[in-house]
Design brief:
This protein is α+β, with helices and mostly antiparallel strands. The chain is 22% helix and 17% strand. It folds into three domains: 168 residues, Lysozyme-like (3-Layer(aba) Sandwich); 156 residues, Glucose Permease (Domain IIA) (Distorted Sandwich), CATH 2.70.70.10; 111 residues, no CATH class. The termini are far apart. About 5% of the residues have low confidence.
Amino acid sequence: MSAPAEQLPRSAWTDTEPGFPNWPERKINPNDVWGNVLHYPAAGNRSFAGLSKKEIARWLNIWRDYHVNTRGWADIGYPVAVDQEGREWWAAGDEYAAAHSATKTFGNANQQLMAILLILGDNEEPSDAMVAAVNRRLAAWRKKFPNMRVILGHQEVPGASTRCPGPEAMRLLNSGSFGLERPGPYAVSPVVGRVTSEWGWRIHPKTGTRNHHNGIDLAPPKPNQTGVDFCAMFGGTVRAVGNGYRKKNPITGYRNTGSYIIIDGPGGGSEFYGHHAGKAYVKPGDVVQAGQPLAEMGAVGDVTGIHLHLELWSGRTPGTAYDPRIAFKQLGLTPGKAGETVQRSVVGMPIKTPVRVAAPKNTKWDAEGRDRNGKFRSGRPPGMPKGFILVADGVAGEYQWTTLQKHLRDAGYKHHSVDGDFGPHSILSFQEFLWDQGFRHHARDQVWGPATSQSAQEWLISVGEKFHVVDQDWGRYSNLSLQHALLDDDVRN
């Protein structure tokens, strides 16, 4: 008879207190957690089999020291560790987001994925005792996190560049040895049919008025053919379903939508499906995977025939809609060609669009930030001394950061000095400003990472600066929007 599983508390290996609870905003919502990631420590071609508890505790302290003193994290990055003897070691814990899997592509990974450190050498095979301990932990987490369903290797997280958790752990993952699902299709072409209307300005086929079409229309193979289902293009959670005709969509404000389904992907993007017939096959709160049928294509709303109106949003609101052709092209899918799929690592991750939206309407600045004469906007930002000229060219520099520091201090955020060096204290002031404006994807941790970029990009959109898209990737067009915001004195409470 095998020995009972041994679960060791944090105090078995360290006297330090957990670090991540120091940031209350990192508190995990159990309903947001939908998967688990397996890691290894990248400790070289060694074996950890047969090590005593004292020896494992020494290694855990080595890894915590590296994470805290070299990486600058608040604690060891993993919630839990499991060794080759089947012992479970409580590490950073599962109440607050640790620092194990986030990337630029998937900035919220630590809030939406748990993680287990497999204490293995780089090419070491997990023991049966280790696998059993992992499955016990996953079973316990399934009770705590009701939406946890998928298990990944670290190398499968979008944006990760690593061989973690090693070839032997990946072999066991792919053999189904662990008690969660493996990822299904990342993306699916949602319906078989024909493209009848593209994204962009058009004359509405029913009303005859000129308006902007925020999506793409996909009609059945034959005009007004009935009985054609459409499916989810990406996985996620159904936010809203509207069955039947309505004059105004209560979520989007559109007047011609009729029936609709909205699905939120776990990484921050959403999809909108319009005009379905009858009753949808899904309801709010359902977790769906790419390729899952949603409803029958219909003609409910101000339409001229049966079709699917598909919108892709980089955020949660219609204002973040972008041309679906971009996603189809990036994924190698064909609009209207059902059956095509893209096998990617994470179910429901939204497409990351590297494109920008056009500059706001009724402005003299084009999408590149130039006026009719090809010149960038320039001027003295409010509150800056005479002779201080900020050029809005999208190139980050001392004048941009000095202005932001000054405006933040004027708004009451004073962790930093005004010196043009936008370091940790300046970042903290900006993070607190964004937090108070209601944009809270990030922690107030003095690190400008993908989540802080997302909060800043959404704030810029909210004040009307729209040269960029919300993609967690801070670059020229985000700088351009920020420079216009500084010239427009948008940094204020």
